[in-house]
Amino acid sequence: MAYKISDSCAACGTCIDECPSQAISEGSIYVIDADKCVDCGTCADVCPMEAIHPED
Fold it and tell me: Could you give the percent of the chain with pLDDT greater than 70?
């Protein structure tokens, strides 16, 4: 199961630097590529906005 970034993303860049599979792309809010996500949760752990959650 991949992770998803919600609308509360502040686009701070913290998660991009921590993602081991380079699954996060930049934009007005960031997006996680489900095909690249290895479900490690590192991005969710470091997100200061708590905007990253497991996808339903």
Answer: 100
